[in-house]
Amino acid sequence: MEQNEQNEQNDHLDILIHKFKDKIATHPELAKLWVHYLTIKQARLKSVIEQAEQTLQMFETTDDIPTHTIALVYLMERYTNETTNA
Question: For residue 70, what are the domain limits?
Answer without folding.
Answer: 3-84
